[in-house]
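Proteins fold reproducibly. Take a sample protein:
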Amino acid sequence: MRKDKLLNFLSNQTDFFDPQNVSEVFTAAWLAQRFAMQRNTASHYLNQLVAQGELIKINGRPVCFLHKASFEQQFFPLPRSEYASIAELLAEEGEPAPEADHFALLIGHDGSLKKPIEQLKTALFYPDGGLPLLITGDSGTGKSYMAQLLHEYAIAQQVIAPDAPFINVNCAQYASNPELLAANLFGYVKGAFTGAVSDKAGAFEAAYGGILFLDEVHRLHAEGQEKLFTWLDRGEIFRLGETAHGHKVATRLIFATTEEVHSTFLTTFIRRIPIQITLPDLQSRSPQEKQALMRQFFWQEAQKVGGRLRLSPRLMNALESHIWRGNVGEMKNAVKYSVASAWARQRNQPTIEVTLHDLPETVMVQLPAVEDTLAEPLLIDQNSVLPWLLRQQDGARLLIQDAQLEVLSLFEHWRSGQLAWEEMEKRMGNEIDNLFDQLIFAHRNPQASPMLLLTSNQVREEFYRLEKRFNLQFNGNCIYALSHYLLHRASEASARLNTELIRTLSHSLEQRYPLLYRFCHEVLTAVAHKLDLQVQHMDALLLILWLQKCGVLSQTQVTRAVILAHGYATASSIANVANRLLKSNLFESFDMPLDVTPEAIASEVMRYIERNALATGLVILVDMGSLNAIYQHFNRHITTPVAIINNVSTRMALYVGERILRGDLPEAIVSDVASDLPIEHQLFYPQQNKPRAIITTCATGLGAANNLSALLKASIPQALAIETVACDYHSLLDRHKREPLLARYEVLAVVGTVDPHLPVPWISLESLISGTGSATLKALFGTLTSAEQVEEINNQLVKNFSLRRVIESVTILDTGKVINQVEQFLLRYEHLAGLELTNDRKVALYIHISCLIERLIRQAAIECYSGAQRPSRQLNALREALSVIESSYSVKIPDAELCYIHDILHRETEFIPSDQQF
């Protein structure tokens, strides 16, 4: 068998193990290749051998497996079979035993039993003998077991002496005889009743220095409960027949009941018990906890029979899906019965096969529908290591932990210079993508569906709410993937995760993706609050990396608006009226006291900026005060224009709100509002940290510029945070209209069909298509990113700016037909004019005439030419050559359009000289 071959091979190789230079022969990947098996198959066999105590697992990068017996013979004995690193493994030599916590091995100690365990410890460690406590829960939930475990834990913690007693009294035996209960609990003196021939101590005194456990305490009627008041109040008891002097008894008292507390016990009794603990029934515990309990019970039976148990997948499936009315106790009995049934038939066999047929009848009659399963039988024997066996059952949790470790390992490689950031981010995204795929498709659990539905609903609600606030949009898969992750991941962060690496990675992501960083943190915080989860640092990091990989779609950007006013509810009232009339929650309001300082106003604005993406700008409406005094306190923190308008009113808010909803920018709003309303206003532009941008423009109109902008945006990685802004050509020629654009952005270059002569590099569209313009863009990007990413940008430009692709982007017409018609025009014009056009002019004409044809069909032709009028004779050759297009599309080309074509044919080319410096 291949598993045996793996074991024998590792046994031999471990003899040559060198901790300072770990060979790859101990990795799953190398072993899979060596024995010609799939990687996941090799990992499965190796993990099974770890569970059986045959191998040691070292969770480094990569994960290594050693033969345990060979290692112990070569080095030193090991108390466990799994270690986080080689260093942790070697630290076992001469290391003192860790402090025992009997609850740490309790299944559910970090899940459904976490709160009950905390309450038990609270009662135990309270000064002056601890606190009395009441444990409630259905029959079979483990009340007696928890009481006994607390006794063992108290001894281990040296709270009580090693020989401290544990006295168990079942009150059901005395339900109808309270006097007998009193005699057994408190003892009696000689002559207290007939037959009391000598003094006798009761259970309280027998439990002196230890724990007295009163089970089924609900069977005591009112008189029986009252007999306990003296001890609960003063820690003192009176033996039966004794009235003069009581006895101080130092014991710890635990009650247990299966009944509802307030309807069963006296109110005066309940208020004397400060700690009340409820143990969950088995049905309300997680599937992982139920599976772990089953494995533990089978492991215990394997210790008893002293042999190997082979548990069939159908048996495990039947036990997992059964509804256990008797809780943990009933499950334990069913496991015991199954092993006993199989043992009776196969007691002379080395491996006991426990199958579906060995189940008790009560389980057999409720078998679920039979489904095909690819799971392998589970092998458990007396040498299996219980902690590792329990961990093995939660495959999803292990997947998450491995993915987290891999992400941190990749980040460490980037820090050490072994990976470029882009490659690291790509591999991280693939790792997380693979994790989410496996969580969704490979770990389906019908019993988890209600919780998954609840989690998905909450995640969806928060995603939609925050998408609107941040002006972001994600695909629906994000919601489902995050829901599965939160459902499966451990409730506490793994100790194997390097907190310093996590902190550094978090800082790096915050610097690169500040908006996405804030979005992810707010989503997780809101969901965690609603689902009682603890947010872990790795949750946000994985979500940021994955959403970045999936792509963040920015919705239509809008200007934000804030109303700041003095008084109890002035700002709130104006904002409320305006928002209701505008039917949009546009305005945020801040009510200020009369003596507020500019610093306080600025701090409110800063908090708002931190919580919200500013998009295209911020408009602040204030009632009075110095506008400059407000702005100077937060001017270093903004990256978009801020308009501050004085003398706020409802009328003004409605005017500004309508303009914002219409898509107008703060510059336009401020310019117009002053002419309509008698107000003071001021517009501030960011002085630093301006967003970088490349402007696209086209003489044929804003529509073509928008299409070029989309092509350019698709060529530039989002991580560079470079915006592409489409502008009307004539607006760029107007100094007053272009100044706000240059103040708003750090403009890197202008790309288009006609040069507007801005003080930035110009790249003509035809040069991009011909390839000569890409060098200029590469020079621009070279200062912003790595050489590898610059090359990737260039490849994208070559792909996106082919002639056919550009024409497809600027027109909805049949691209093939358009290119054919323009080609006929060019041939005819060259013949009529007696000249040969250069390639760059041909490219420009292909694009310009493509747009022209669409304008003519839509009856939106340009009727006015802004330049000097051309003599009719200069246009005759053009008009005749273009007749092929007029007849093909049944249109008439106006003279203004002919003039623009003439300009393209006869003006100087717009290429930037190769020696130009910028």
Notes: The first helix runs from residue 2 to 14. The first strand starts at residue 55 and ends at 58. Residues 908-918 have pLDDT under 50 and may be disordered.
